[in-house]
Amino acid sequence: MPFNEVNSMDSFLALLLNGLNSSALILLAALGMVIICGLMNVINLAHGELIMVGAYTAFSVTQVAGLSFAVAVPAAFVVSAAVGAAMELLVIRKLTGRPAETMLATFGISVVLQQVTNLIFGAQSQYVAIPIEGNLSAGRVVIPYYNIFTILFAAAVSAGTVLLLKKTRFGKRVRAITQNRTMAECLGINSARIDTLTFAFGCGLAGMAGALAAPVKSVSPFMGGPYLVSSFMTSVVGGIASFFGTAVGSLLVGESTALLGGVSNDVFASILVFLLIIAVIRFKPEGLFAKERR
Amino acid sequence: MKKLLRLPVNRYVDYGLFLVLALFPLSGSLFYTQLIEKYLVFLIFAYSLDILWGYAGLMNLGHAVLFGLGGYVMALSLSARGGIPDFMANGGVTQMPGWLQVLSNPAAAVLAGILLPALLAGLLGRFLFYSRVGGVFFAVITLALAQVFNLFIQSQQTYTGGFNGIGGLPGLSLFGNELTLTQGYYFVFCVVVLAYVFCRCLMGSRFGLVLRGIRENETRLEFLGCDQARFKTAVFAVSGALAGLAGVLYAPVNGMIAPNDVGMEFSTAVIVWLAIGGRGNLTGAAVGAMLVNVLGNALSENFGVFWQLLLGAVIVAVVFFVPDGIVGALIRAARGRKAGKAVESRG
Fold first, then answer.
1. By CB atoms within 10 Å of each CB, which of A216, A249, B98, B326 scores lowest?
2. Interface contact B52, partner A, CB < 8 A
């Protein structure tokens, strides 16, 4: 982006808004990670592939079946959640309390998901048409409507997730299990069912992130890796079990990548962000907004 | 003789494998000798991860970064032998940079190729382990490192050849004499055996014992007054040096190096070798690396996608049915038989 040619204030604003858009995508991707990794203590190395599954669902619904994008987003949630539920029932449940084995198994699953997608759709990148055309222009700053939609959608989903966990019976049970599993079971909570539902919900969120990202990023079987890394990084920076921390973390990662990318280049920006995150972990290993643990 | 009989079963596998590898060039197939020579380099790489993951329990998901750093240093050195390399000239470099002049000395390149990865690993370890970052975060951060490093290599078109990598490298040479294929094979073989002996001595020493202690129970070891962060950092650095050495050999043996060899893809490959072969006994690393690569070479031509799919499914199956890998299962079976015999003779 030519930084000096146009009014630098305007281009700064444009960068800021771009950053907000990528923050929104990162936030959506990281929300599922917070639930699965923060609440359930499961390291899911197939998280990026669940995002990929969501993106391919959006692709199939809009480009192959010709339906509206409004159908694609819930469909992506359902498909990814179903894959997640199957993963939890068949694999993850049996590896409780063995983090290294869980990591390895979910890694194997990620390879399987990649290759199955590769078999069905081929290795080439697919494109999803942008569902909301047009730009909002204020002065010299131009924002695509779709970006505004993404930002609002991410905010709404985060708020919904927090409400679900804090205000509903289901959320109360999830938190009870997180705090004391044995005690929760003694009180008659079916922890196995809640585990499956929680895991599926986290995976569904990942799928939705994939659907939202599909129109602006390319969709390919191997797209998951960067998403896995950025959502991990975001939740680590924010404090792994904290929703507020994750929101701040995604803003931090998204904005700093966009702003640094504006003044130099994307690679330099991602290297700097990586170093920044290592520094955060060095001095605040629990994340910036770690919950007090008793 | 008695001492030989008392060896654990995996040592027989080690010696058997080395015997087969030592005799392999006698088969006379140049194509396969060259292929196996490449896999020999992979053995060193697998050993380097085994001392880190198998013995100290630190799962490095970006191990290929250390390998690639060594490999790229060597590749740059080899390509700079005849003046400014093409990819640099295309990027507008007209004068050889000072650091490249230093690197064009083979001894300096080997040294840098081993020390730079060790330094990177040591620095990273110093930052991570002293802040009590758990094993899981170590894995995540190394994964991110692999991604960043791959991006970095691809973006530095002028100095690394970018997406295409650095190709057309000359083969192995020793003191200025280019080695023939068989000579090169035996040279790499000797390095592999040395690396094996080094790893076994190191892991058999007090240092190795402490590492296994850290893997089993970190807190208890802290109570015994052992600074676990120092040991972890040290083993990470040693592992980095060994991975760098593998990279240094890989560049001339393979004739080229590309971003694929340094990023997430190759990092996950070495994880797969160890997962399937088994960890924490060096044998599993070697068996896994050989098995996956030989089978992969035979099968991927005809069943490309299916081979990868199978590999993914096999990892999940291994976690469930043989969590300590093929060699781990073998050791357990042998121990079970020995214990059975002991009971019989007593009764």
1. B98
2. no
